[in-house]
Design goal:
The protein is mainly beta and 246 residues long. Helix content is 7%, strand content 41%. The protein has two helices and 18 strands.
C-alpha cells in the first residue's frame, strides 16, 4: 500500500492559496506521486528513491533524483494549464547536489520548454537558477547570482504574471531561518526580455526533476513539497509557507 505523509502546518498554509497541485514527494512505495490538492496524481520514473536521510532538517521524506534520467510527471489537466496568466506561482524545497544533467538540471519544466526553473553554472559550492518562459517571438529569461548553495535545504517560490512583457518574476529564497525576496536589480537579472505573447502550455505535461522532451536535463539532488497555483500571493503568505518548514 502506498501512503503519503505531509506536514499538516505546511498543507494548511498551501490550502489558503487554493493550489492547482501539491505533491509532497514523500510517497513511501510504488510509482504514484500523490497530488494532495487534486484528482490527478504524478508518476515516478527511473530510479527515484523515496527515503529518510540524516541530511534532512525535519523527519520528512523527499525524492532523491540522480541528475540523469529520474523524473516525476504530472499529466496535463485544466488546473495546471497556463498558470502564469494573471499571476501564477510554483514552490518547492530543494537540496541541490550539483547543476545537474548537461549542467542545466530542471527543477520543474512544462512541456518541451514552455517554462522551466533550472540549475546551472556550478562553481565554488554554489549554482545559479534560471527561469525561462516561452513567448511566441522571444522567450523571457532571468537568472539569479551564483549564490544558491549546494547541499543545503532551500525553499524556492517563484511568482510571475505573463500578461505583459514588461513584467518580471519575483523569486523567494529561504535558507535556515531567513527568507529573501529576489527581484530584478536585487538578486535577479533579466538576460532576455520576452517579446510577443506567451505560448499556451495546454496539452503538455509538467515534469519535476527533468524535462519532458528528452530526459537529459536531470536535477541532481532532493526535492520535496512541490506546489503550484494561480492568483495573488503575498509576501506574508510566502513567509508562512517557509516558516511551516518541510
Amino acid at each position: 500500500m502506498n501512503s503519503t505523509i505531509y506536514r499538516p502546518s505546511l498543507w494548511q498554509q498551501i490550502q489558503t492559496l487554493s493550489p492547482a497541485a501539491y505533491l509532497p514527494l514523500n510517497d513511501n512505495s510504488g510509482s504514484t506521486a500523490k497530488n494532495v490538492a487534486g484528482a490527478t496524481d504524478g508518476t515516478y520514473t527511473g530510479g527515484v528513491l523515496r527515503q529518510k536521510s540524516a541530511i534532512k532538517t525535519v523527519d520528512s521524506d523527499a525524492v532523491d533524483l540522480n541528475g540523469t534520467t529520474d523524473l516525476i510527471t504530472l499529466a496535463d489537466h485544466a488546473a495546471i494549464q497556463n498558470i502564469w496568466d494573471s499571476l501564477g506561482w510554483i514552490a518547492v524545497w530543494a537540496y541541490i547536489h550539483s547543476d545537474g544533467g548537461s549542467n542545466q538540471g530542471r527543477i520543474w519544466n512544462k512541456g518541451g520548454d514552455h517554462y522551466h526553473l533550472r540549475t546551472q553554472g556550478e562553481t565554488g559550492g554554489n549554482v545559479l537558477l534560471q527561469f525561462l518562459i516561452d513567448f511566441d517571438t522571444t522567450d523571457g529569461k532571468w537568472i539569479t547570482a551564483t549564490d544558491i548553495a549546494i547541499n543545503t535545504w532551500t525553499f524556492l517560490l517563484l511568482g510571475y504574471d505573463a500578461d505583459a512583457v514588461g513584467n518580471d518574476p519575483t523569486l523567494y529564497k529561504g535558507i535556515g531561518n531567513t527568507l529573501t525576496t529576489l527581484t530584478v536589480g536585487a538578486g535577479l537579472t533579466k538576460i532576455q526580455t520576452p517579446v510577443g505573447t506567451r505560448v499556451s502550455d495546454a496539452a503538455d505535461d509538467l515534469t519535476i526533476g527533468n524535462r519532458k522532451s528528452a530526459a537529459d536535463r536531470g536535477f541532481d539532488g532532493l526535492l520535496s513539497n512541490f506546489a503550484m497555483g494561480s492568483g495573488t500571493i503575498t509576501t506574508a503568505q510566502v513567509q508562512s509557507m517557509f516558516d511551516a518548514g518541510r
